[in-house]
């Protein structure tokens, strides 16, 4: 998709002052519709007019016209390509760590415990890292945070390589929790650039969700290939290199980095009479995070149950392909969803999307009862088609319900809820596989998680 868009001719933007001219060492985020950096400290970026995407060419618009329109804005292709480089390791690191530790120590239990520790540490540290990004800017925080995370990955690699005690593996992988939310930073840039254009923001969020699905579809495949074809530590080494390179290139794109909201003494945003309430206490955000928690449980349980089902039917090597089909269905639906111009209220659309996801998630349970992996593959492809629209609409609601100066924190809280759900779903899926009547019955867990997500979404709608 990126290569195709890069090959398209760029239409020059409308005459007028460029929205990307000038930058400051203190640039950060502002939510769509939020105020630009006005009245900030000396040397801070001044007010910037909203971006006006390039006018469309006359004639019949193409199918991908909405995507060409957002990528016609100067600087968007550069930061997107850099962010994709930094985001790909998110689907590689955990798989690489499991393969590396299990191969060297001969224990999948140890490998799983180490990665679970890193997941828990990320859930705790991630929101604090995002808050620092909001306060001080992407470039000033993301680069050192990424450097610390890369050092943790390299420390894990060396400890495994040289037979260090087990506790060093836990400590090293916990250090990777400072990895910034690269997807959230990219969404924050789109939200700032198109703060006065909801249709463009919808298209950009749809593209970002499709990019997430692509990275989590290709990442494990690339990690497995590197660890098996080269050497066990290759996946971790390449993932760390890609992460550092991508974040450095992303941070260098200062022209599209949103400005930091000016803050008075004591940390209160300038112009406010009282400190803003924490994002989690915003009206309607907590039930929304509950929906993300249940959605994460769908992902976590689906992965474990699918691997167990494939192993039970003697096609364990096809487990990755089955999961890739679910991600492919989600990514394709996300791109198509970005071409639409939804007219209904976001809360109504979110409830409809979660309802569709709950209905489609019944298909794998029905397909597993047939005992045919081919039927299950088709069911997983169909089940994934409601995931991306749900995530796109949900992330849009998070943006609208997060304070102006805390957008990265709000987006990272959503990711943290997803991670917590993935951990809980993995445990529930593993229990179901062991205690229910066969691995196929385990697909009742993601179906139940989808039903809980629907209940939480309805709660979100009524609370708002």
From TrEMBL:
It comes from Streptomyces sirii. Keywords: Membrane, Transmembrane, Transmembrane helix. It holds the Pfam family MFS_1. It comes from the Bacteria. Residues 14-61 are annotated as: Disordered. This is MFS transporter. The keyword Transmembrane helix applies. InterPro entries: MFS (IPR011701), MFS_trans_sf (IPR036259). The chain crosses the membrane at residues 108-129, 141-164, 234-252, 285-309, 315-338, 350-369, 375-398, 410-431, 443-460.
């Amino acid at each position: 998709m990126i290569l195709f868009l890069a090959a398209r001719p760029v239409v020059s933007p409308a005459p007028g002052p460029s929205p990307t001219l000038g930058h400051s060492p203190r640039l950060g985020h502002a939510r769509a519709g939020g105020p630009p950096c006005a009245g900030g400290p000396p040397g801070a970026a001044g007010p910037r007019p909203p971006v006006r995407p390039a006018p469309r060419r006359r004639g019949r618009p193409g199918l991908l016209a909405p995507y060409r329109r957002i990528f016609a804005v100067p600087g968007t292709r550069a930061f997107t390509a850099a962010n994709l480089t930094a985001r790909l390791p998110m689907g590689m690191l955990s798989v690489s760590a499991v393969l590396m530790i299990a191969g060297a120590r001969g224990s999948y239990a140890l490998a799983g415990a180490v990665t679970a520790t890193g997941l828990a540490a990320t859930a705790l540290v991630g929101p604090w890292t995002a808050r620092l990004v909001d306060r001080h800017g992407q470039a000033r925080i993301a680069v050192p945070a990424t450097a610390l995370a890369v050092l943790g990955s390299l420390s894990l690699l060396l400890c495994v390589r040289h037979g260090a005690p087990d506790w060093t593996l836990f400590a090293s992988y916990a250090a990777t929790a400072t990895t910034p939310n690269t997807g959230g930073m990219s969404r924050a840039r789109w939200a700032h650039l198109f703060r006065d254009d909801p249709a463009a923001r919808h298209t950009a969020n749809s593209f970002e969700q499709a990019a997430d699905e692509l990275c989590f579809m290709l990442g494990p495949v690339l990690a497995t290939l590197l660890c098996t074809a080269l050497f066990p530590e290759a996946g971790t080494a390449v993932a760390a290199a890609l992460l550092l390179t991508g974040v450095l290139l992303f941070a260098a794109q200062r022209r599209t980095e949103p400005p930091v909201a000016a803050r008075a003494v004591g940390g209160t945003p300038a112009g406010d009479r009282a400190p803003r309430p924490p994002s989690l206490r915003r009206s309607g955000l907590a039930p929304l995070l509950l929906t993300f928690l249940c959605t994460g449980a769908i992902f976590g349980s689906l992965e474990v149950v699918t691997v167990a089902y494939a192993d039970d039917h003697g096609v364990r090597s096809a487990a990755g392909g089955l999961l890739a089909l679910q991600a492919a269905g989600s990514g394709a639906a996300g791109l198509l969803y970005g071409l639409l111009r939804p007219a209904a209220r976001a809360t109504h659309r979110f409830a409809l999307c979660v309802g569709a996801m709950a209905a489609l998630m019944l298909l794998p349970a029905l397909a597993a009862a047939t005992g045919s992996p081919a039927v299950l593959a088709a069911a997983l492809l169909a089940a994934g088609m409601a995931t991306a629209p749900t995530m796109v609409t949900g992330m849009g609601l998070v943006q609208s319900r997060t304070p102006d100066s805390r957008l990265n924190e709000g987006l990272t809280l959503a990711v943290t809820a997803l991670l917590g759900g993935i951990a809980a779903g993995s445990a529930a899926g593993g229990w179901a596989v062991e205690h229910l009547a066969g691995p196929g019955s385990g697909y009742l867990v993601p179906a139940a998680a989808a039903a809980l997500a629907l209940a939480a979404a309805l709660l979100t709608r009524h609370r708002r």
